[in-house]
Amino acid sequence: MSGLVMKRIILIFLLVASIATLSYYQFVYANDDEPSIERLMNNRKQKRDYDNLFDDHLYKSFTIEFSEVEFQSLLDSMQAYFDLYGTYQDNTMHKVTLTYNDGEDNSFSIEEVGFRTKSNTSRNLPLTYDWRDREVYHQTSFQLQFDATFDYPNNSNEYEILKSREAFNLSQLNFEFCKTFDSEFDEAMISEAYSYYLYEQAGVMVSNASYGVVYFKIEETLIGFGFYTIIEPIDNEFLKKNFSSDLLGDYGDLYKCTDTSGPADLGMAYEGLIGINENELNERYSYSLKNNTLGGSRTHFDSLTNLIEVLDNSSYFSLHQDEIIDVDHFIRALAIGFLIGNTDDYRYNYNNFYLYFNVYTNKAVFIPFDLDNSLGFGKHQDLTFMYGVNYPLQASTDQFAVLVNRIFENDENITLYHMYLEDFATNLFTFEAFNEEFLIVKSLYQDVLINENHLGNQVFSLRNSEWYFNTKRENVLAFLELESD
Amino acid sequence: MAKKAFLLSMFLVLFFITGCDFLSQSTNTTETSTLTSTTTTSATTSGELTDSTTLEEVDQSYINLFDDQVYKKFVIHFSESNFLKLINDMENYYDEFGTYRDNTIQEVDIEYTDSLGNIIVLNEVGFRTKGNIFSRDLPVIKDNSGNIIGYQQVSFQLEFNDTFDYLENSTQYKELKERRAFDLEQLNFKYVNPGDSGIVTESIAYDLYREAGVLTSATSYAIIYFDIEGTEVPYGLFLLQEPIDDVFVKRYFGRDQDGTVGDLYKCVWQNFGPANLKDDYMPIALGVSDYNDGYRKTYQLKTNKDTSNFSSFITFVDRLNDTSVINYQNILEQYIDIDSLLRAYAMGFLIGSPDDYRSDANNYYLYFYEGKAVYIPFDMDQSMGYGWDPYGNHGLNLDVLNYPPAQSYIGDQSNLPMAYNVLEISEFEETYLTYLIEFTNPTNPVFDITKYIEKFNLIKQLYETELNAENHLGITYFSTTSRNMDISDYYEQKSEWARERAIYYIND
Q1: Is B20's Cβ below 8 Å from some Cβ in A?
Q2: What is the CA radius of gyration of chain A?
């Protein structure tokens, strides 16, 4: 009896051991060739990560990890695009791993994130070779796409997970480096993010923005890529956060408006300027529809063309302005934009704004973006090189910014504009507040940039910002006083 | 059997649970190890990047560069092939045009160090030789078989923003185009004239002009080494000269109200004759020079090359030469920055370069600022009792007002309208004489020998030992007395004579 029991025990033990061994090897085998799908998931608390990401007083670092093959593929695809079109605006997505660290001890990695370079003028090959064949790294603006699905088949588990994956409560995240203009860096470093902050404080819907230091890790080589402004993209996620959908969950049309194929002045000469960008063919439009594109097949752009048509009819616009556009929002944008002094904007250069059309009413909302030529720095249309500090309150550079002209044809609008100018100049637009933010950001990043010899500007300087803030503010208040007399 | 199946399934469940634990543990480990790796490796990033620049403010690096108190050293790194290409290009140019004035740019790396502890390393900088027909030579000495048997000094220029053959809009093009060093796009290096043991003559001449209220380049000195693929050539002491270009005019004049800068012309005696500013110049003498043509224009536009119609210069020369108008003095005042011109004439007379506008219709720039021509002298190595001596006794016996051009080719003084016509006007003449008196005031002279001696001693102290110890090319001997003329004699005699004559004419 006891022998039979022993036999059974041995048999069971052998059986279990065999199964366990087989299972273990199967697991190891599976882990090698078929990595767990869980690696692609991001189960972190999105809202908290979003808040940390845009907390300017937290130190943040982003390490973008490439395989050597993937990095070379990035270079090759950009160079091929340049060879074809004379620009690096290739948007091919490349796989990277993002590792995020912040001052709150949040550290996490996300695998298989999409990486592409971004922008036109600030888009660079991240690596070139000089005359002695040495590696030279270059800062470039770029975008991370957390929902990129790469070549995964759309019935695969990977595709299903990735297509709706978010990080920081975002599908994508933009990174812009501090560019040079006329051989000078914007040594204040915070100008663009601070300009976004000023818009937001003025009640204008804009992207959230903050700062971080970026590393590229190519296999085992780590390169300090420098200080970056991180900017929330204006995309479907942005619409979800800021607007209501219809009952089906759909949103209205969103257009990105730039001076790409002609001035985005909202004037009647819009033929050929509206469309859906075809990046692979290097076809880009000044008014580029960013959603509801019907897979790129949409050919009517009524929401925008209707707006342009009614803007052409001064008397109609005057009577119906509040049905056509969010006037208060636009006037707030004009007022704070005037103080910020970005003359690469719609008002002065017919450039750099989005228009969102309400899904039910088609009422337009104006959303400015790209604020790196601001606060006394950068490319300016002000030919006196005084960064617009002496500009009259209402004037455009010329009279082609149709929407601005229509708004200023109405005295009530001008009164409201003046009221906002006075409010913002008095309560919001101060050098002291800018300097406070500057000192905090400097204390967070400057030593790291210097000690690790990062690319780009390393030493923070207030440059002409005190002059700019004070002169602009004083001039605006003086102009307002003159107008009230 | 059922028992066995139950037991087996229990084990399987147990194993599955264990496997899940392991799986999730495995993910955590990966995350931790990635983060650790990031922190560790980031600490080693420093120093891996190429093309590092100083962390100092750019303007401060400019100030340091032209601070004579600061010892400065440049090492210019050539590849062997680029150095040979430099020579080949110059020889080919000589074969074609009979001079070595080839401006083909070669890539070099540079390393700057100074006594303040600043180090600036710049890779992929443009290098070209510099100088006129007589002063530009090969940087090497060859034997009759064409073998390099030694090196010789030649003036050169570094171009920090050269884009070489990179395509416009390419990353390299954009980055290099925007690059500056020392807050400059370019920097000129001029070897110290080997016969002038006073060493600092040219730099002092620039200083004197600037002290007299005449705009011209900032200068200083540096010791130069060539490194040709590991072969070090101690290349000698060089004058650093701030180029007179668009950066220069923006620095000193700012931009015009329309955001642009004015037209800047380099005016030199070249293939089409002296830059005398007479209105009979050949049309081809005015324009944008291209060294590939094998000649240089007399009046070379240096800014607004794509946009200017040359009207600023043409109108100016027309007005200058039209003495028939009733209000000629007003016209001159309208078209020339008279005060700075008269200051320049006064200080130029004291410096005594026979190769300037007033003597030789040569070596100056005209910058058109708000409609007026501003005279900017350059190239002063034949000065203060050294070098070319067309007048004899280094011009010490020249009268302050009436002296002929240095070369008979020019004819008489009236062929230099910007000097003759201007000084013919009594008010301008008097101002000129007043400046001469002011600059030679014995109690507080601008034209002051002590400044020369101080600078001489400073540069001697900073560089003489190294020049001799490292067996540098060029002049290594410092002496204010063993030159063509003892510098003290020159200052004393020139100052006394100029002052005496100026007072005489004023009182006349």
Answers
A1: no
A2: 26
A226 and A303 in a single domain? The answer is no
DSSP-derived secondary structure letter, A94: E
Could you give the ipTM of this predicted complex? 0.85
Residue A37 lies in a domain: no
The answer for B 49-68 residues in CB contact with A (under 8 A) is: 49-52, 55, 57-58
pLDDT of residue A484: 83
Same domain (yes/no): A134, A171: yes
Token reading at A186: 């914007």
Range of A291's domain? 245-429+466-484
A48-92 pLDDT, tens digit per residue, is: 999 999 999 999 999 999 999 999 999 999 999 999 999 999 999
Give the integer Cα–Cα distance in Å for B473 and B78. Answer: 18
Average pLDDT, chain B: 88
| Residues near A198 by beta carbon (within 8 Å), at least 6 away in sequence | A336, A339, A340, A424, A428, A429
- CA dist., res. A371 & res. A186, Å (int): 12
- Min CA distance, A105 vs chain B (Å)? 11
Which residues 83-102 in chain A show a CB within 8 A of chain B?
86-88, 97, 99, 101
Enumerate the residues of chain A whose CB falls inside 8 A of the CB of residue B47: 453
Residue at a domain's end among A177, A205, A237: A237
pLDDT digit string, tens, across residues B237-278: 999 999 999 999 989 988 765 667 899 999 999 888 999 999
Q: Are A209 and A319 contained in the same domain?
A: no
Q: With an 8 Å Cβ cutoff, are B34 and A31 in contact?
A: no
Within 174-233 of B, beta carbons closer than 8 Å to A belong to 174-175, 178-180, 185
Distance CA B122, CA A24 (A): 57
Closest chain A C-alpha to B36 CA, distance in angstroms: 10
Rounded to the nearest integer, the mean pLDDT of chain A is 92
Residues A206, A305 within the same domain: no
Which contacts (CB < 8 Å, 24+ apart) does range A259-264 have?
A259/A286, A259/A349, A259/A350, A259/A351, A260/A284, A260/A285, A260/A286, A260/A288, A261/A285, A261/A286, A262/A286, A263/A349, A263/A350, A263/A351, A263/A400, A264/A346, A264/A350, A264/A351, A264/A353
In this predicted structure, the answer to whether residue A363 has a pLDDT above a threshold of 60 is: yes
- Candidates A78, A379, A385: best to mutate against B (most CBs of B within 10 A) is A385
Residue type, A420: Y
**A chain contacts of residue B245, beta-carbon cutoff 8 Å:** none
Q: How confident is the model at residue B59 (pLDDT cuts 50, 70, 90)?
A: confident
Residues A57 and A123 in one domain: yes
pLDDT at B2 over 50: no
Among all chains, which residue has been given the structure tokens 């005016």?
B267
Contact check, Cβ <8 Å, B57/A461:
yes
A183 and B164 within 8 Å at the Cβ level: the answer is no
Q: Express each pLDDT in A237-277 by its tens digit.
A: 999 999 999 999 999 999 999 999 999 999 999 999 999 99
User: What is the number of domains present in chain A?
Assistant: 2
**pLDDT band at A10; cut points 50, 70, 90:** confident
Of the listed ranges A271-285, B24-38, B151-165, the least confidently predicted one is: B24-38
Say whether residue B172 is in contact with chain A using an 8 A CB cutoff.
yes
Question: Mind telling me how many Å the CA of B12 is from chain A's nearest CA?
Answer: 8
Q: Are residues A382 and A267 in the same domain?
A: yes
Do A365 and A388 fall into the same domain?
yes
Quick one: A376 and A474 in the same domain? yes
Of residues A265, A238, A266, the one with CA closest to residue A252:
A238
Q: Give the best residue of B171, B173, B255 to mutate against chain A (max A CB count within 10 A).
A: B171
Whether residue A217 and residue B41 make contact (CB cut-off 8 A), yes or no, is yes
| Binding-face residues of A in 372-391 toward B, CB within 8 A | 383-385
Residue B445 pLDDT more than 50? yes
